[in-house]
Fold this protein.
Amino acid sequence: MALEPALRARRDAGAKLLVTYMTAGLTDDWVDYLQVMVEAGADAVEVGLPFSDPAMDGPTIQEASVRALARGVTPGSALSALAAREQPVPLVAMTYYNLVLRAGLERFAARAVEAGVTGAIIPDIPLEESAPWEDAASGAGIATVLLAAPVTPDDRLALLARRSRGFVYGVNLMGVTGERATLAGSAKVLAGRLKALTDLPVVMGFGISTPEQAVEAAAAADGVVVASVLMRSVLAGAAVGEVGAQVADFRRALDEG
Amino acid sequence: MTIAGANRVEMAEPSESGRFGDYGGRYVPEALVPACAEVEAAFRAAWADPDFVARYRGLLADYAGRPTPVTECHRLSAELGVRLLLKREDLTHTGSHKINNVIGQGLLTVEMGKQRVIAETGAGQHGVATATAAALLGLQCVIYMGEVDTERQELNVFRMRLLGAEVVPVRSGSRTLKDAVNEAMRAWVSEVETTHYCIGSVMGPHPFPWMVRELQRVIGDEAREQCRTLLGGSDPDLVVACVGGGSNSAGTFAGFVGTSARLVGVEAAGGSAVGRGVPGVLHGMRSLLLQDEAGQILEAESISAGLDYPGIGPEHAYLAGAGRAEYASAGDDEVLDALSLLARTEGIIPALEPAHALAWLVRATRDGTVPGGSTVLLTMSGRGDKDASQVMSLLGDRVGLG
Ligand SMILES: Cc1ncc(COP(=O)(O)O)c(C=O)c1O
C-alpha cells in the first residue's frame, strides 16, 4: 500500500498517526509481532533490516539487531518473510545504506516492492548523498522518507521537506534511538518548523517511550514513531498479545488526545 | 624526479563532496551534517592561516619533538640487500605518529570554541595521543575503546586515565575498534555543540580523511627532504608504510606521490580491505570494506589492534584503483619475525603495526619483488613499548623469557 496516500487519508480524517517499529528476524514469529501492531492500530510499520553497525541506534535496537543477526536474518530472508503475508497498512524498510548498496540500488528496491514495502528510511544518507537511492526508489514506487534534525538550518529544512516522500521524519532530539524519561524540548520546535514548511504528514520519532509523550509530540505534528520501548518488550520475552496491548495503549492515547 | 604527463596521480584536495575518485563522501545522519560542515570550514580557514600553522608547527617541534630523524639501517640493509631508511615516528612524544594529528585537531577544537574532545581508539595509541593533546590544551577528553581492547591494552587505559581522560569501554557489537567508532559517533550526535570528534585516521566523513592526511603529511614532507640529503639528491625507489585506517601511510605517501617512488601500503592479512574488501559505506565514508554477501561488516583480526579495522581510508581506495599505490599484506608470524629482526640488527623495537611494513619488505627482498640495491624509505610509525607484554607472551619462549 502506497505510503503517502494512506497516511494523508488518515491524517485528513482527523487521526494522529502511529508508526511502530519491528526488528526483522528478532524472533521466529517476528511477523506475528508486526501483524499485531497493525491490528492494534498502527498506521504504518517500520521494518528494521538489521545491520552489523547501527550507528544511529541506542542500546535497545542495537541489542535487537545483534540478536536478529545472530539468528541468521538477512535482508533477503526478512523481505521474503514479509512477502508471505500481505498487510493492510504501508510497510517502511528502515536500514543502513551499506545493505542497500551491497544488494544494488535497483535490485534492493525491486525486492522491497515485491515484499510489499512502499517506503524506506536510510539514516546514513543525508541530502548530499541520497539522490542515487531516491531515484532508484521512486523508479520502483518506494517513497524515501528523509529525516530532519533539530540542528537542520532553515534553508536545508525546506529542501528536505520538498524532497521527502511519504512523510517527513522529525528527529525529536540530538542523539540516537532509545527511550528517554521526558520528551525533548527540541521536538516541539522542530515539529512546528516542519509543519510551517510542508503539507506532507510530519511524524516525530526517537525517544518516544510512553503514551503521554506520544500525545505531547503528536500535538505539534501529525503523528509519532514508537520503536525502542516496543523492542525492549520483545527482547524481554513479551508475548505477541502483550505487545499488541502496548501498541493499543498508544493508539488509545493518541485517539483520545 | 617527478612522473611526467598523463600518469600523474596527485594527492590533492578531494572534490567539493569530499570525494577521492569514487570514494569518500559524507554519509552521516542529518544531525551531524552541520558539524561536519563546521569542521571543514574551520580547518580550511586554519590551514590557510599562517598563525594557526605556526602554532601547529611550533607544538610539533617543541612538544612532540619534530622533525623526527631518518635513520639508515646499516646492518639490516646488508642482510636484506637494499638500502633501508626508517622515518622515525617512534621517537615522537607518546611514541607514534598519532601525535601529529591530535595536536592539529586539538588546536582546531580550541579554534572552534569547543571545550571537549572525544575519540575512538583500538590499540590505545590514538587514545593516549588525544588524551595528551587534551591535557596540553586544557580540553575535557572522553575515549571510546572496545572492551576487548581495554583488556588487551590495559596499560594504555591506565595512561589515558593518568592523563585525565575518561575511558569508556564499548560493549556493543564485536567490542573492538569498529564498535568504538560507532559509539563515538553516537556520542558525538548528542554532544556536538560542545564537542569535537577527533577521528584518529584518514577515515570517516569529509573532511576527516583529507584533514588527517594534511595533518600527517609532515611525515612525508620531512622524509622527502631527508632522503634527498642522504641519497645525494634523489628520491628512494620504494616507500613503504603500514595501513590500518591509513594515516601514517597517507602522510608518508603525500610527500612522495609526486616522485617516481613506488608506494606500498601494508595491511594486516586479517584486515586486508584492499585485498579482500568490496566498496561500501561505513563510518561516514564510501570505501573498500570487509563485508559479507549481505553487506554486514566483518571483523578484522590480527595480532595488532592498531590494524584491526575492516576498512581503509577512501584516498587509499582511490590510489589503489588509480594504480599509484600498491597494497599488500603481512601475516602474524612473519610480523613477529620482522619485529625481532629489527630489534636484533638495529636496536629498535618497533610497534606491531610498522612491523607489518617491515615483514612485507623482508619477504619482498627475498622473493625478488624488490630488486637488490633498491633504496627504501619505511615509516616506523610507532615504538614497541605498548606491545611489550603481548609480544612477550607470543615470543617469550623464543627469547627465553616465557
Ligand atoms: C604505531 C601505529 N602505527 C600504525 C597505526 C595504524 O593507523 P594508521 O593506518 O592510521 O596509521 C596505529 C594505530 O593504532 C599505530 O598505533
Notes: The CA atoms of residues 12 and 20 of chain B lie 9 Å apart.
